[in-house]
Amino acid sequence: MKNFEQQCAIFTDLLLRYNKTHNITGAKNAAKVQENIEDSIYPLQFLEQKQIKNAIDVGSGAGFPGFLLALVMHDTHFTLFEPIKKKSAFLHLAKTLLHVENITIASQRVEEHSGFTCDLITSRAVTKSQELVKICRHFITPQTKFLLYKGENVIKEVDNLQNYEIYSRGHRNYLLIKDVYGL
Known about the structure:
The protein is an alpha/beta fold. The chain has a single domain (4-179), classed as Rossmann fold, CATH 3.40.50.150. The chain is 32% helix and 22% strand. Strands 3-2-1-4-5-7-6 form a seven-stranded mixed sheet, covered by helices on one side. Helix 1 packs antiparallel against helix 4. The chain is globular, with a radius of gyration of 16 Å.
């Protein structure tokens, strides 16, 4: 099995080649892809991973953050929801070429899926936090946590939240919601 750095090098090369034709991400060079990789895995510093067996990533796009998290979190099965066909096709290609077994690609909107029990829900740049919780209702249990990759206006999205933490790194804010049952 390839180590994470080797997998990232293959992923980066594949993404840059695919992106030239299909334009699925704004990351147009290896340095920008690396920034997205680092952004994707940064929360592993504060995320309790042991209890996470099932996770979904909403609006996976080019694989940030869900695909990269799956490369590190081998004991967690990730379902990546990406309804845009050219992005979903890339995720299928990357999964196949990297031989990633703990990923399922769902080429549909998350709210169209019948749902299943989920320990973690991740998303980057999809919608406001409370709206995301609503469209993911059929995946949530009292133990489900949300890890949302947010910008500088994250504080405007936590009004009705009770049990959350915000971790900051540069212009990125990582919103970890531990209890969404009040929403």
